[in-house]
């Protein structure tokens, strides 16, 4: 893959840029072991996960959230 120049990215449509960001994020998420979290970040994630487990009705699956953000639901 070639290096993307800022001007090339800015020439993409908004939807194309959003897709690019999603693709980049997916590539990062595919290697979670490479992401180092601070103790504070770990504690916050655990707090949120505990809250979710305490009341499963309050949470939403990612695909539902993503569609809500995109305005499709």
UniProtKB/TrEMBL annotation:
Protein name: Addiction module protein
Organism field: Trichloromonas acetexigens
């Amino acid at each position: 893959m070639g290096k993307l120049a800022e001007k090339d990215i800015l020439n993409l449509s908004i939807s194309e840029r959003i897709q690019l960001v999603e693709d980049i994020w997916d590539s990062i998420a595919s290697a979670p072991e490479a992401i180092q979290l601070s103790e504070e970040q770990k504690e916050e994630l655990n707090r949120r996960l505990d809250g979710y487990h305490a009341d499963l009705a309050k949470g939403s699956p990612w695909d539902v959230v993503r569609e809500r953000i995109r305005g499709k639901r």
